[in-house]
Amino acid sequence: MSLKLKKEIIKLNEVVYAQYGQTMVESDIIVPDVKPDILKILQVDGTAIVTQKMVQQDKIVIQGNVNMNILYHPDGGDTPGRVKSMTSTQMFTHVVDAAGVRPNMSMFCEAEVENVDFTFLNSRKMNVRLGVGVNVKAFNPMEIEVATDMQDDGNLQTKGEIIRASNVVFEGEREVTVRDQVEVPTGKPPIAEIFKIDTRVNEREIMILENKIVIKGDIDIMTLYSSVDFASVDGEDFEREVETVNFMEHQIPFNEVLDIEGLTDGMDGEIDYSVKEIFFEISADGSGDKRVINLELTVCANVHANEIMEIHSIEDAYSTDGDIEIKKGLYNIEQLIGRSSAQISHRDLAPISSDMPPIAQLINCKSKPMVTGIKVDGVQAHVVGSIETSILYLSGDVNNPVCAVKHKSEFTHLIEINGMEDKVVCEAKLDVDHVTFNMTTDREVELRFIISLNARAVKATQTEIIEEIHWLECSKIDPRPSIVIYFVQKGDTLWDIAKRYRTTPAAIIEANGLEGDTLSMGQQLMI
């Protein structure tokens, strides 16, 4: 005979596949006809953009582009200090063997360039190798019935648990177009040529409303450009054209309302931002100098909207009057244990090696953080990260006027999230909010970082959900002595002992005069 259970239907996303991998992108890049020959490669930057993701039977296919900016010294010409840049886009395809995934499943995917290597082949050709990290997670949308209570307990003892599940309501991308105009700051020379524009999106606010999500933030615009002036060189008694490299920073705010069906007030939201495309045009100011940049940026907002549900379910049951049979279903449920955020100040010194010219003037520093490891110890997690910084500077060497070096800095930060334990996975994301740099000597740069850390602890394990409870026919309770003395063993709980002897935790507490349910190994209990 089946016992009547009170059940609640909930919608969940079963985690079918979650994996981090890396794909290599390698290509030979030819200098465009309109660009001069390469004398020396200074810097290669890459940004990965996912353009398509497909879930097939037991397979996930991810396609994307890596947009590269290459900074180099040109060969030929008599203008000292010259720098040129060129861009290139390379496609990549990453195929993941994921047993159990099906075409109707939803998925999350993000890609990031982790390392860049390049080789100079000749004045018109170079080889670039990029490691692209790809994070993939596939979900199976489902409805399950969770037993929350009994309608007819029949002397049934039940043990409850709280399942704090994170249900993915929406996982997808939205594009936001941001247009603005920035000007060269006073004291900086006008623009001759823009080498590259780097961007960083800073999230300020996320607010989820009914079928809408409001996003606010700022876009940091970091522009490397050249200007042309006339000056004497190396003691010459006449002036000639001299090209200088300059750097400027601006910040553009944005405020958008995205329409997304299915969202409700109180949902939990996260957004990963990336700048997909940058269009710019140089124009003159009121004085006729080229000091204005008209910008149009396509910002990709990868939206994750989750509904956090606390479900009070029956975890275990037994009867003091007879035997029962419990039928359970096994589900891969990702439970959200907790979140933590922090702002980290980090300082480091970057040396300039002896085979490089000394620093005459710093131009700019571009930093990228990365989580390299997380170790969970109780409620604490040690997050190990690294920051790779590309430093661009001017030297006094006419043969090597602009130099680029890389510096890697490591740090560790301790966070606490209540509820972390074995089988709990801690995930963390890092962003560099701000970086300042200054020369300490002509061979050393002081770097100061403000890093934001956002972490969450999840328990992505197989969870048993009670589906049915049956009385076993002709079940009998074996006779036992009127008094039993039990010695508490390691790992025992009051529930386990009461279940074994078909009594109740309350009866054991009363019989032994206990003040609570805490037990110690070797403790004597009268049953």
Task: Give the H and E element order.
Answer: EEEEEEEEEEEEEEEEEEEHHE
Low-confidence stretches: none
Tell me the fraction of residues in β-strands, as a range: over 45%
Strand order of the largest sheet: 1-6-5
End-to-end span in angstroms?
Answer: 30 Å
Main sheet, how many strands, which sense, barrel?
Answer: 3 strands, antiparallel
Number of helices: 2
Indicate the structural class. mainly beta
Radius of gyration from the alpha-carbon trace, in angstroms: 31 Å
Net shape: elongated
Q: Mean pLDDT across all residues, rounded?
A: 88
Number of strands: 20
Helix content: under 10%
Describe this structure in words.
By secondary structure, the protein is mostly beta strands. Helices cover 3% and strands 71% of the residues. The protein is built from two helices and 20 strands. The strands form seven sheets. It has a three-stranded antiparallel beta sheet, with no helix packed on it. The longest helix is centred in the C-terminal third of the chain and has 8 residues. The two termini are 30 Å apart. The mean pLDDT is 88.
Mind sketching the topology for me?
Blueprint: E1 5-30, E2 38-56, E3 59-74, E4 84-97, E5 106-122, E6 125-150, E7 156-183, E8 193-209, E9 212-231, E10 240-259, E11 268-284, E12 290-319, E13 324-351, E14 361-377, E15 380-394, E16 402-416, E17 425-441, E18 444-471, E19 485-487, H1 494-500, H2 505-512, E20 524-526
Antiparallel strand pairs: 1-6, 2-3, 3-4, 5-6, 7-12, 8-9, 9-10, 11-12, 13-18, 14-15, 15-16, 17-18, 19-20
